[in-house]
Amino acid sequence: MAKTKLQEVLDRALALSLYQHRIDSLRPAMRTLQDAGRRMFTAQAYDSLLAVYGADLSEATKEEKDDRKAAAILLAITAALALRLSRDVALLQPGLEQALTAAVVNAGLAKYGIRADLRSIKAQEWLAAHGAELVTGINQFTREQMAIVLRDGFAAGKSVDDIAADLMFKFNDMSWPRAYRIAVTEANKAWTYAELEHAKLMEDAGFLMVKQWLLGPTHPRMDRCDEAAEMGAVPLSHIYPNGIGGPPDHPHCGCCLTSYPDTGQSQPWGAMVLGLTPTPFGQGDANAA
């Protein structure tokens, strides 16, 4: 059945309201993540410059010397980035933790009047695993971009000093947009993680839970998110056609994941979750003092 114009307007108003609520909740975490990302890029830039000047180019004096130089420098940079791994994870952790806290307070079990904390979603385990994964991914992107600068620089006959300057410029050029992209994407990932973890706690208590991909109101065009949103309510374990379990699907993704007890099934209201009783929507807080 096709939606009426009024239904479409109401759906969009709801999407905008939910989106703004989530963005407002995550704004402090995004600022922290953005600042951490910028500082990480700056520190990596200086470490990479040291790696450029410290690279052993003694073997790069024969044929294909430019390729040898580029390989030697990239290897040195890779080693420098690897040494930064634990420091970069620690640098990004406060912002990720802020995002998780916002999600716990404003989503998940909060919908049922249950006040949870970071322990309820195994936050420390997620921070350790995802932080390392995030930094590894950032560094892979960094190496790929550097390889292009090295290749193009040597092909143009530039000196090592000139190429080092190009690398520094590239880092500075990446810092603002890359840091903002990381902030938005990672805050969204934290929200989705907290939502799913709390939904699993509900399932453990006997509730029959579903999740739903809510399309962000800021999408400029149709993409894979639209296909995921059109599926409506699906099981928590469902993997969407884009190969993931929830938003974000791409940088700057404004979509959100929500979960709730399947309205078509009988639910065990009165069961305990984290020692408290979930309250059905619109029935107040059963755990209020």
Structural overview:
α1 (5-54) runs antiparallel to α3, α2 (65-83) runs antiparallel to α4 and α3 (85-106) crosses α4 (123-155). The protein is 61% helix and 5% strand. It has 289 residues and is mainly alpha-helical. It has a domain at 5-204. The chain has helices at 5-54, 65-83, 85-106, 123-155, 160-204, 224-229, and strands spanning 209-214, 233-235, 256-261.
Write the layout of secondary structure elements.
Elements: H1 5-54, H2 65-83, H3 85-106, H4 123-155, H5 160-204, E1 209-214, H6 224-229, E2 233-235, E3 256-261
Summarize the structure.
The protein has 289 residues and is mostly helical. The chain is 61% helix and 5% strand.
Descriptors:
6 helices; disordered C terminus; 3-stranded antiparallel sheet; mainly alpha; 289 residues
Q: Please tell me how large the radius of gyration is.
A: 23 Å
Estimate what percentage of residues fall within beta strands: 5-15%
Put simply, the count of helices is 6
Number of β-strand runs: 3
Mean pLDDT: 86
The rounded distance between the terminal residues' Cα atoms is: 45 Å
Shape: elongated
The secondary structure category is: mainly alpha
In spatial order, strands of the major sheet run: 2-1-3
* Order of H and E elements: HHHHHEHEE
Give the biggest beta sheet: 3 strands, antiparallel
Give helix % range: 55-70%
